[in-house]
């Protein structure tokens, strides 16, 4: 029974961003994100006082879903970042920190918000054009002939989730597995309807991450005791597989909308069981080795088939049906009451019982050109395992994105610092032609551009949580970190060795300046040799597609939030 | 709040001003956005006046009436809710001043107010019927430019369409997304209609916009684009890609015959009965699908869920299936492609007819969802394209989608001719003319140019040019001048007003002349510039001519933005008021003229703009006096019929408001009158 209530008027709040509470919440939210950012980020534990699920994480996905935000403008910001993550999986924290920072710095300027928004949009267009151009110095082209860049990309992503608690050997092992899985899912023959293969993730808790492994085909958990005759079905000949999508439990078929009444002496269950057993005898006669059913199999049928040494797997679930049909080539049958056509049988290369970590699983071995692989991930406890699963999903998605945009951006904050130097240079050198389009004064343009660049630099500096000094070099525009705090009396060149992403070593002709926004503009140089083969081993990379989208979404969200004049709350 | 509350003009003004304060911050090119949150957590972003007002959930009854009228206006024209509120508030303010001024002369009691307001309401009606239409017809129509290439060729030029749409989106979504959305809208319009004036296509787009667009979140809004064909907002259950031409079957029932219907009961009398029934069902499904496959059907669109058996046989026959489609979408598909839903029995008994033809059918990934993308071959004029709108948050995409929808509603309104509601009419100055005309101009308006002093008692007797326009039945264009005469106009100036000049001009034969408008356009040689306007109308004759006079605003008429319509109307209303004799009409004309200025005032004083309102106003008045139109304004355009409609709706709302005497609040629900 619904209750009729008098509708109350909505509450209206003007100029929402000038409210002190909103600004304070924005500041706190930014602190949360900035402190989780990067491989040295600090973890957050999310729980609620009434009990319930406790999560320890540093990923944007879990944080945004778990942290309740009450202010509507900030809810908008979080929704925007979550949408970006659902599309690209990576750079969620980057997006959130950048938009919070842009909003906060814009609020401190005394200009009209429409001017600021216009200039931001213009600067964003400049950034994206530069990143997409061929002469961009922070972009790396991925050469699919060598695995080095892809491996570095996968490794950078795994390393950026500190809650996984992996040591360097484990990181290397997991990244190699991920890369192998990705490469295997790309099919060898491109036909009319080519699809990427699938990597199924199977997680096991309680073991070290070194025990993770990759298997071709599928791994199925046999909930019954493992049949002894599996070993006799090894790869002497191919395995015949029958896949059912209908329920083999002896229910009435679909399409019974009304009632069914049976006269005495008539038993529908017996009729249906009889057709099931007929099916069983047909399968036995056809020499089928493996029966897989998406739903439940009747115990009598199971018994009959086991007597004839056939393996029965039921309750597979909808998610695994597609990879199974892809490996075996079988067509899932929807009815058991008629004869099964022979063309619906599938083939497997072999079956095996494997022992992974502490579990014994049935391994369906496909033929060589199959694109379905199973990745078994292990980690010590539930928290670290969940983080590792998220990290692996992100890495897999990012690697798939490289198929469309075969580029990678320099990580470690170097891209942001480089972009900032580029924008500063462009703003001072090409000011006059821009002002006419933007309908603003020169001062406004300069000030807003400086605000934009310092937000980018802030995000780059947020990677470092120990308060170390960050420098920028005046030739390439990369970020350099001073390892220790004792630098009285030393020159910068004595203290630094290589830049934050690892691509440049120090040389005698370089000059450094502290990264606080007050340096003379310069034109960042293109690094000639980074495009060729001598890419250092431990370079840190970011996904190109994810980062460019993140940049655009961050600036657009900040512009949207700055544009609001009223907030109306419906209290019904 | 029970009981009866008297309604005073000051209450009306108070309510209107509150609404105005909310709306004015979001008005114009520099206005801001409003964020709505619901208790469910849903977020809505908008600058659209209609959404803002309807989401406020106001309790005040007067406010509810105002919002209701504004929203009703917006449904027709797609735009103008905020301007409605601003104009209404200004009108009510002016009305209060007028009423207060009257009551200071007499003892002000509430009853007195009510009577005054009632009289004013009558004057307003007269104003609408006589003065407004007349001014629009005679003055504003000439200054409007057209969207079309030329009068005969009804093709909309791309640049004009772009200017019109840009102005609309500037107000609806702000400067951020204005450019990209207006380019997209312009491209879509030109693609769907091919540039021809095709009102049916625009109307179709307006009615079915929900199904013709897809919203995608998580991607920057610059990735919005137009797709060929139709996107069905459902994923394939079974998918077999085809590149060649295919036939599509539309179905609204399950293909598998049910074992038992919903209202029936099956009595099983033997074991074989169940088995043979199931076998029969199986066989039927197999036959149906193989028949479909033979007749070339490669895609089945179903509004209900099909059983697993049907899907299995579809897979065996390589037919794609889309299930659980939205019935609206399915009906749109049927109307575009000419197909009709088929019953399973028809398929079985006979070859299936009413199949749709398509060029391609594939799966498309938009955002996080996978949809079916079909390219329909259709002979009708229905649009063959659909739109994908992207944005970082769903609130923004909803805003862009509703702005897009409104833009097409506005286009539809612009491209239709607007008809005068009141028919041709007579003005109070009516003089009969004979063949040799001896016209006596009854009143003249003299407006010296700004800053120029009018020299005292000059006797000006100079030859003037008399521009006579003939209206020959058969529809010659109104503004074509036919004759130029030199005639003598004797004017006597006395003080700062000219008295009755006389003009004697002989204008040819008058047998075929039904109506004549003579305009004396005087250009002086001296320092003073005089504009003399006189209207002389005949008693109108047969009805055939009345029809072609009824079209008040031609299709495709546009004005430059920035308040030029309002400024022009303001000028002409003031001029009319100053030579009008009836005090009631005069007061109303002044009222409306001053209220009209509120719109350009809000545009130019809000935000950071270098054009100050007064500067704009003086320049505009000068331009209108000298040339009859406003020069040097922004290049973008807005629709004349929408503006006119706005003014009419506002006046009607005001008329209904000022006639309210008191409102009665009760606790019991008032049931609607029982229908006979």
From TrEMBL, chain A:
<dbReference type="InterPro" id="IPR027409">
    <property type="entry name" value="GroEL-like_apical_dom_sf"/>
</dbReference>
<dbReference type="GO" id="GO:0060271">
    <property type="term" value="P:cilium assembly"/>
</dbReference>
<dbReference type="GO" id="GO:0032502">
    <property type="term" value="P:developmental process"/>
</dbReference>
<dbReference type="Pfam" id="PF00118">
    <property type="entry name" value="Cpn60_TCP1"/>
</dbReference>
<dbReference type="InterPro" id="IPR028790">
    <property type="entry name" value="MKKS"/>
</dbReference>
<dbReference type="GO" id="GO:0005737">
    <property type="term" value="C:cytoplasm"/>
</dbReference>
<dbReference type="GO" id="GO:0005634">
    <property type="term" value="C:nucleus"/>
</dbReference>
<dbReference type="GO" id="GO:0005524">
    <property type="term" value="F:ATP binding"/>
</dbReference>
<dbReference type="GO" id="GO:0051082">
    <property type="term" value="F:unfolded protein binding"/>
</dbReference>
<dbReference type="InterPro" id="IPR027413">
    <property type="entry name" value="GROEL-like_equatorial_sf"/>
</dbReference>
<dbReference type="InterPro" id="IPR002423">
    <property type="entry name" value="Cpn60/GroEL/TCP-1"/>
</dbReference>
<dbReference type="GO" id="GO:1902636">
    <property type="term" value="C:kinociliary basal body"/>
</dbReference>
<dbReference type="GO" id="GO:0051131">
    <property type="term" value="P:chaperone-mediated protein complex assembly"/>
</dbReference>
<dbReference type="GO" id="GO:0006457">
    <property type="term" value="P:protein folding"/>
</dbReference>
<protein>
    <submittedName>
        <fullName>MKKS centrosomal shuttling protein</fullName>
    </submittedName>
</protein>
<dbReference type="InterPro" id="IPR027410">
    <property type="entry name" value="TCP-1-like_intermed_sf"/>
</dbReference>
TrEMBL record, chain B:
<dbReference type="InterPro" id="IPR042619">
    <property type="entry name" value="BBS10"/>
</dbReference>
<dbReference type="InterPro" id="IPR027410">
    <property type="entry name" value="TCP-1-like_intermed_sf"/>
</dbReference>
<dbReference type="InterPro" id="IPR027409">
    <property type="entry name" value="GroEL-like_apical_dom_sf"/>
</dbReference>
<dbReference type="InterPro" id="IPR002423">
    <property type="entry name" value="Cpn60/GroEL/TCP-1"/>
</dbReference>
<dbReference type="InterPro" id="IPR027413">
    <property type="entry name" value="GROEL-like_equatorial_sf"/>
</dbReference>
<dbReference type="GO" id="GO:0005524">
    <property type="term" value="F:ATP binding"/>
</dbReference>
<protein>
    <submittedName>
        <fullName>Bardet-Biedl syndrome 10</fullName>
    </submittedName>
</protein>
<dbReference type="GO" id="GO:0051131">
    <property type="term" value="P:chaperone-mediated protein complex assembly"/>
</dbReference>
<dbReference type="Pfam" id="PF00118">
    <property type="entry name" value="Cpn60_TCP1"/>
</dbReference>
């Amino acid at each position: 029974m619904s209750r009729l209530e008098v509708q109350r008027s909505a509450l209206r709040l003007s100029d929402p961003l000038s409210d002190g509470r909103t600004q304070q919440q924005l500041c706190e939210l930014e602190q949360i994100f900035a402190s989780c950012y990067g491989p040295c980020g600090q973890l957050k534990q999310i729980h609620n006082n009434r009990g319930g699920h406790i999560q320890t994480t540093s990923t944007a996905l879990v944080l945004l879903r778990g942290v309740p935000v009450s202010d509507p403008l900030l809810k908008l910001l979080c929704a925007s970042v979550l949408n970006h993550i659902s599309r690209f999986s990576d750079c969620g924290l980057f997006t959130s920190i950048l938009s919070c920072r842009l909003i906060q710095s814009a609020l401190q300027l005394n200009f009209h918000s429409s001017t600021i928004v216009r200039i931001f949009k213009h600067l964003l267009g400049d950034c994206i054009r530069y990143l997409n151009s061929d002469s961009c110095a922070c972009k790396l082209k991925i050469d699919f002939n060598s695995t080095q860049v892809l491996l570095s990309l996968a490794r950078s992503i795994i390393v950026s989730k500190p809650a996984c608690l992996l040591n360097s050997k484990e990181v290397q092992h997991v990244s190699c597995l991920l890369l192998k899985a990705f490469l295997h899912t790309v099919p060898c023959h491109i036909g009319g309807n080519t699809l990427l293969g699938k990597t199924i993730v199977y997680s096991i808790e309680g073991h070290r991450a070194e025990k993770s492994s990759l298997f071709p085909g599928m791994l199925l958990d046999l909930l019954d005791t493992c049949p002894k005759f599996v070993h006799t079905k090894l790869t002497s000949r191919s395995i015949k597989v029958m896949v059912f999508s209908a329920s083999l439990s002896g229910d009435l078929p679909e399409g019974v909308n009304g009632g069914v009444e049976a006269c005495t002496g008539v038993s529908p269950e017996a009729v249906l069981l009889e057709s099931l057993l007929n099916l069983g005898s047909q399968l036995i006669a056809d020499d089928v080795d493996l029966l897989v059913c998406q739903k439940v199999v009747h115990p009598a049928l199971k018994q009959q088939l086991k007597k004839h040494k056939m393996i029965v797997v039921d309750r597979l679930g909808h998610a695994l049906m597609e990879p199974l049909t892809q490996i075996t080539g079988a067509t899932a049958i929807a009815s058991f009451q008629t004869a099964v056509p022979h063309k619906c049988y599938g083939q497997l290369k072999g079956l095996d019982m494997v022992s992974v970590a502490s579990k014994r699983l049935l391994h369906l071995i496909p033929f060589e050109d199959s694109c379905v692989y199973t990745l078994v991930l292990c980690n010590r406890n539930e928290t670290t395992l969940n983080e590792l699963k998220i990290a692996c999903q992100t890495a897999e998605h990012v690697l798939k994105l490289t198929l469309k945009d075969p580029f990678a951006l320099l990580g470690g904050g170097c891209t942001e610092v480089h972009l900032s130097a580029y924008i500063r240079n462009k703003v001072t050198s090409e000011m006059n032609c821009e002002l006419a389009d933007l309908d603003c004064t020169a001062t406004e343009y300069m000030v807003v551009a400086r605000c934009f660049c310092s937000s980018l630099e802030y995000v780059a500096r947020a990677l470092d949580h120990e308060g170390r000094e960050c420098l920028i070099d005046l030739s390439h525009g990369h970020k350099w970190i001073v390892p220790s705090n004792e630098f009285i009396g030393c020159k910068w060149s004595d203290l630094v060795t290589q830049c934050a992403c690892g691509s440049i070593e120090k040389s005698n002709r370089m000059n450094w300046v502290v990264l606080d926004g007050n340096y003379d503009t310069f034109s960042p140089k293109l690094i000639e040799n980074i495009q060729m083969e001598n890419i250092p081993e431990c370079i840190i990379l970011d996904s190109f597609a994810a980062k460019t989208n993140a940049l655009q979404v961050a600036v657009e969200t900040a512009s949207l939030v700055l544009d609001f004049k009223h907030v109306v709350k419906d209290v019904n | 709040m029970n009981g009866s509350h008297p309604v005073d003009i000051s209450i009306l003004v108070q309510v209107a001003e509150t609404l105005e304060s909310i709306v004015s911050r979001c008005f114009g090119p520099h206005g801001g956005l409003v964020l709505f949150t619901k208790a469910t957590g849903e977020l809505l972003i908008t600058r659209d006046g209609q959404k803002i007002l309807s989401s406020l959930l106001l309790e005040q009854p007067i406010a509810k009436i105002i919002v209701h009228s504004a929203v009703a206006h917006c449904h027709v024209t797609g735009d103008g809710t905020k301007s409605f509120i601003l104009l209404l508030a200004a009108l009510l303010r002016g009305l209060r001043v007028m009423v207060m001024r009257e009551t200071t002369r007499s003892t002000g009691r509430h009853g007195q107010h009510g009577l005054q307001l009632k009289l004013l309401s009558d004057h307003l009606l007269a104003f609408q019927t006589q003065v407004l239409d007349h001014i629009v017809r005679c003055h504003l129509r000439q200054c409007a430019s057209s969207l079309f290439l030329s009068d005969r060729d009804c093709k909309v030029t791309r640049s004009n369409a772009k200017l019109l749409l840009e102005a609309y989106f500037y107000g609806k979504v702000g400067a951020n997304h204005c450019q990209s959305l207006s380019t997209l809208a312009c491209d879509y319009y030109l693609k769907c209609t091919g540039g021809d004036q095709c009102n049916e296509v625009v109307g179709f787009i307006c009615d079915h916009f929900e199904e013709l667009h897809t919203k995608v979140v998580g991607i920057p809004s610059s990735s919005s684009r137009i797709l060929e064909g139709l996107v069905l907002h459902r994923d394939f259950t079974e998918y077999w890609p085809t590149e060649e031409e295919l036939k599509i079957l539309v179905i609204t029932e399950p293909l598998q015959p049910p074992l038992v219907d919903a209202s029936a009961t099956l009595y099983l009398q033997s074991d074989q009965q169940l088995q043979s029934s199931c076998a029969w069902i199986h066989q039927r499904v197999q036959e149906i699908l193989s028949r479909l496959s033979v007749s070339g059907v490669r895609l089945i669109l179903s509004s209900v869920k099909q059983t697993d058996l049907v899907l299995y046989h579809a897979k065996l026959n390589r037919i794609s299936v889309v299930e659980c489609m939205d019935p609206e979408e399915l009906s749109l598909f049927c109307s575009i492609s000419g197909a009709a839903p088929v019953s399973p029995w028809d398929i079985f008994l006979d070859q299936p007819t009413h199949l749709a033809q398509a060029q391609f059918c594939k799966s498309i990934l938009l955002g996080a969802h996978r949809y079916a993308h079909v390219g329909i071959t259709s002979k009708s004029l229905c649009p063959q394209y659909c739109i994908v709108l992207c944005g970082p948050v769903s609130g923004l995409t909803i805003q862009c989608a509703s702005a897009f929808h409104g833009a097409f509603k506005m286009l539809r309104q612009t491209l239709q001719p607007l008809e005068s509601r009141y028919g041709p009419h007579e003005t109070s100055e009516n003089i009969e003319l004979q063949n040799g005309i001896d016209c006596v101009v009854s009143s003249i308006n003299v407006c010296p140019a700004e800053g120029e002093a009018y020299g005292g008692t000059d006797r000006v007797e100079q030859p003037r040019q008399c521009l006579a326009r003939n209206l020959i039945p058969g529809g010659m264009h109104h503004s074509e001048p036919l004759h130029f005469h030199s005639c003598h106009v004797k004017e006597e100036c006395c003080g700062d007003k000219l008295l009755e000049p006389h003009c004697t001009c002989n204008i040819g034969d008058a047998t075929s002349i039904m109506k004549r408008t003579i305009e004396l356009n005087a250009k002086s040689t001296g320092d003073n510039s005089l504009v003399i306007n006189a209207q002389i109308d005949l008693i109108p004759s047969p009805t055939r001519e009345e029809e072609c006079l009824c079209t008040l605003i031609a299709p495709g008429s546009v004005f430059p933005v920035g308040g030029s319509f309002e400024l022009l109307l303001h000028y002409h209303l003031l001029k009319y008021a100053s030579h009008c004799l009836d005090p009631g009409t005069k007061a109303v004309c002044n009222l409306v003229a001053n209220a009209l200025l509120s719109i350009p005032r809000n545009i130019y004083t809000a935000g950071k703009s270098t054009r100050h309102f007064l500067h704009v106003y003086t320049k505009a008045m000068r331009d209108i006096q000298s040339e009859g139109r406003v020069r040097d304004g922004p290049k973008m355009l807005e629709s004349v019929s929408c503006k006119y409609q706005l003014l009419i709706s506002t006046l009607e709302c005001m008329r209904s408001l000022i006639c309210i005497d008191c409102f009665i609040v009760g606790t019991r629900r008032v049931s609607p009158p029982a229908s006979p």
